[in-house]
Design a protein that fits this description.
This protein is mainly β. The chain has one domain. It is built from one helix and eleven strands, in the order E-E-E-E-E-E-E-E-H-E-E-E. Strands 2, 3, 6, 7, 8 and 10 form a six-stranded mixed β-sheet that branches. A five-stranded mixed β-sheet has the order 5-4-1-9-11, with helices on one face. A hairpin with a 2-residue loop joins strand 2 and strand 3.
Length: about 150
């Protein structure tokens, strides 16, 4: 089985004046898509990933596509921040790693049966130091089915 599902990341109140975007590709061969400059309000990123595997055979789905990063069993999506998102002159050069491991076959079945549904996660945009949140999202409340 192979299908595409829609994911949405809501980045809650990231610091103003900083560029954010979804990383497509990896290594030195990547581009930042859906680039947005924060004005202090929430930012939304919506994109597709590919799901492979068989629920009867595979305990967890296999996440893939040009936006999916990381090794098997540790897949994630990057939000590029500041210079990593191509912002010239930014004092910030960070990436936020949003894990995919909480997306289950049950979630995939729900969004596959109803095209009005998506999988969404809401993550903090500001770190404890007051700058953009970076590294792996913590605490991570996972992905949730929503309309």
């Amino acid at each position: 089985m192979e299908l595409e599902i829609t994911l949405q990341i809501v980045l809650v109140k990231p610091p103003e004046g900083v560029d954010y975007g979804v990383q497509k590709g990896s290594g030195n061969m990547y581009e930042t898509i859906q680039k947005q400059r924060s004005n202090g309000a929430d930012l939304n990123f919506k994109f597709l990933i590919t799901i492979k595997g068989e629920p009867r055979k595979d305990e967890m789905p296999k996440y893939s596509g040009p936006i999916v990063q990381g090794p098997t069993g540790g897949k994630f999506v990057y939000i590029d921040i500041g210079t990593c998102a191509g912002q010239v002159g930014s004092i910030w050069s960070r990436r936020l790693k949003v894990p995919l491991y909480t997306i289950t076959w049950k979630d995939i079945d729900a969004v596959n049966k109803n095209p009005k549904l998506i999988l969404e996660t809401i993550v903090p945009g500001t770190a404890k130091d007051g700058g953009p949140n970076c590294a792996t999202v913590k605490p991570f409340n996972g992905w949730h089915v929503r309309e």
